[in-house]
């Protein structure tokens, strides 16, 4: 019996690592192809990569969210290298938090939509604060202030798109609920 449990955990970990890596590649690709540069910034851009970071974190938990978030750095290296290190730290933390908070809240609140929304708002606030701080230090307060609305819109867009995707995927693959 113990061997079956260990084998199941191993398969689960392997699946999560593979899925997280695929999500990281998808985040890089969607970030790259959906990039809309912000005129007020020094290389910053709006993108839809947030959606996939949230989806990975909501479906597979904090580890997958962290890896998926880190995937955004690949796009930054290609189109906005000055943001690469900040993106690695900010997006990885954001993905981790969304997965972690969702998992913890779902044990207490049985509304997955509510849990996911709270988690995304918290993780998104981390992203917004992280980029505002980075841009203030590197480019100055006025540039950071000019980028702020775009980061807020990016987070809200991610929330609006990711939660329905999460529900759709869970209807098709109910076994993924085991990761919550």
Overall description:
This protein is an all-alpha fold and 180 residues long. The chain has seven helices and two strands, in the order αββαααααα. The protein has helices at 2-33, 49-60, 62-70, 72-79, 84-106, 112-138, 141-172, and strands spanning 36-37, 45-46. Strands 1-2 form a two-stranded antiparallel sheet. α1 runs parallel beside α4, α2 (49-60) runs antiparallel to α3 and α3 runs antiparallel to α5 (84-106). The longest helix is centred in the N-terminal third of the chain and has 32 residues, at 2-33. The model has no long low-confidence stretch (mean pLDDT 92).
Characterize the overall form.
Answer: globular
Order of helices and strands: HEEHHHHHH
Low-confidence stretches: none
Tell me the structural class: mainly alpha
| First and last CA, distance | 24 Å
Share of residues in helices: over 70%
State which percent range the strand residues make up: under 5%
Number of helices: 7
**Strand segment count:** 2
What is the averaged pLDDT score? 92
How are the strands of the biggest sheet laid out side by side?
A: 1-2
Largest sheet: 2 strands, antiparallel
Radius of gyration: 17 Å
